[in-house]
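Reading group handout, session on sequence-to-structure problems. Before we discuss, look at one worked example. The prompt was deliberately terse, the way you'd type it at a terminal:

> structure endo-polygalacturonase

The input record follows.
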Amino acid sequence: MDKILFLAFLVLLLVPCRNAEPKFPREFEVLGGLEILDVEENGDEEFELLEFPSWESDCTSKNLVNVEAFGAVGDGTSDDTQAFVNAWKQACPTPKSVFLVPEGRRYLVNAIRFRGPCADKLEIQIEGTIVAPDEPKSWDPKNPRVWLYFYNLTKVLFQGGGVIDGSGSKWWAASCKKNKSNRCKGAPTALTIDSSSAIRVKGLTIQNSQQMHFVISKSDSVRVSDVKVSAPEDSPNTDGIHITESTNVILQNCIIGTGDDCVSIVNASSNIKMKTIYCGPGHGISIGSLGKNNSTGIVEKVVLDNAFLRGSTNGLRIKTWQGGSGYVRAVRYQNVMMQDVSNPIIIDQFYCDSPSACQNQTSAVAVSQIVYRNIIGTSRSQNAMKFACSDTVPCTHIVLNNINLQRKDGTVETYCNSAAGCGYGYIQPSAECLASSDKDIINNREKEAEYLIHTEL
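And the output record:
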C-alpha cells in the first residue's frame, strides 16, 4: 500500500493544470506573497554552527561554560538546578560562550527561567539528557506553566544530539482529560522561547513533556530544524511545536508524534513556513484553535510543503470557536501524503473543546484564501474533506488542486456547510458541494476557471 501511495503521489505532482494561465481575482493577491515563504534548502543564516566537540580544537575562540564545572552531578537523582542557574549567569554575559550540557549523563533540574539579553554569539549545546522531576507535587510553585524557559534572547543557537525529557506520565494521569474526576489545570511546557529574535534550534529531541513540548511565543525569525518531538498517543495536551504571537518562523525536517497537535499555530502569528514535516501519532497540523471566549484570532501567510501524516486523528486542520472574530487567510498546503488519517482536510468553525455543549453564536473567525495542492493518501473517516463553516461568516476562496484521498474500506466524500471555492485538476472525492466563490466575485460556476491559482503557487 505504501508503494502504491508513493507512486500515486508522484503522478499527482506531474498532473498539469487544466488552465495554463488562469486569471485570479484581486482578493487572492496576498497568496502571491506566499512564494517568498518557500524554505531554502541550505539556509543556515549567519550562525556559525558549533559541530560538537569542535570546541576542543577551537578553545581560544569559544568560552566554554560546562554545567559540571558549577556542580552539576548528572546522575539523574541529584538536583542540578542551581548548577544550571549558576552556569547561565556565567555564560549569558560572556561573548562567544558555549553553555554546555555534556553527553552521557542525566541532569535533573526543576523549573528555570533563563533570561537575556546575553552577549553576542551565545550557543547552547545540549548533548546529555535534561530530565524534569516526575512528581507534580514537587514542582516549583512559582513556575506552574514552564520548565526550561528562555526569554529575551537575540542571535542564539540551540543545538546538539541531547534530550529534553519532561517525565510527564504523572502529570498526564492527573489531567481531567484522562480522568474527568480530576481538576482541570495547566501543566508546564518543556521548552519555551519567548520574546526573542534570530533564534536557531537544531537537532534536539524533546520528549514526554508535562503538557506542550516546545512553545515559540512573541518571537521573530526563529528557525527549527532536525528536531524530534515524542510522547505517547494518549498523553493529553502534549502539542509538539506551538507557535503563538510570532512571525517569520521556519520548521524544517522535524519528526513529531504526540497526544495532541503535531504543530499548532495560534493568534497573532504570520509568515510561518513548514517543510518536510512528519506527523503521527497526534491531532494533525493545526491552525487554531482561535476565537475562544469571544476573543480575536488572526493567523495569515502559512505554508506547509512536503509532509507525511500517519495515523493522526486530523490531517490539515483549521479550528475556530463560535463567537470569535478575526481571520485566517493566505494558507497554502502542498505536497502532503497521508496514511490512515481521520479528517485529512478539515476546516471547523464550530470547534468546541469543552465538557459542556458550546452555545450557538453568530460571530466567527473568518476563513479565506486556503489552498490545498497535491494532497494524497488514505482516510479513516468517510468525510475525507470537511468544510464546516459558519452560516453568518462563511469560508470563502477555498481552492483544491490535485487531491486524491481514498478509504481502505468504503467510499469517501466531501462535506460542506457555507463554504465557497473551486477545484481544478484531479479531485477525489468530488467537491461539488463547494459553492462557487461569493457572488461579488463569481456569479456562476461557468466562471470558476477564471479564478484558479497558477500551478506555481
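Points for discussion. First: The longest helix spans residues 2-14. Second: Residues 9-24, 45-59, 439-457 have pLDDT under 50 and may be disordered.
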